[in-house]
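Here is one chain, start to finish.
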Amino acid sequence: MTENAATVHGIYEAFGWGDVPAILARVAEDVVWEYGPREIAAPWLARRSGRDGAAAFFGVVAERLEFRSFAPKRILDGGDVVVVLVDLVVGVRGTDAVIEENEEIHLWWFDAAGQVCKFRHVVDTAQHEAAAALLGG
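Its structure:
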């Protein structure tokens, strides 16, 4: 396992403990959070930038989502990019919506300093957008 893959493993451990500062310590100051081909209409998947943007992501997740299960099941090590397959079941607070993802993909890109410089969830966008629509804005 490369150092970057080990970092990702540590990020998931910190996430499980709710230790957001430990996660943010591994994120570059100018990180691009949720890059992709289009904006996804779910507040937890909004495009953000910078360490403050990454911190805002974790705030929205804590406010809006309730994890029923979260299991990173495979870490694929590509050196400066690490891909993780995650199974999860998440409830959306204030709604009856449940998001169930089998093999949601997380893409972690690293800079030369070994910090996360780019991150993206690859998800069932229809499921996330339908759940977010129940929030009513």
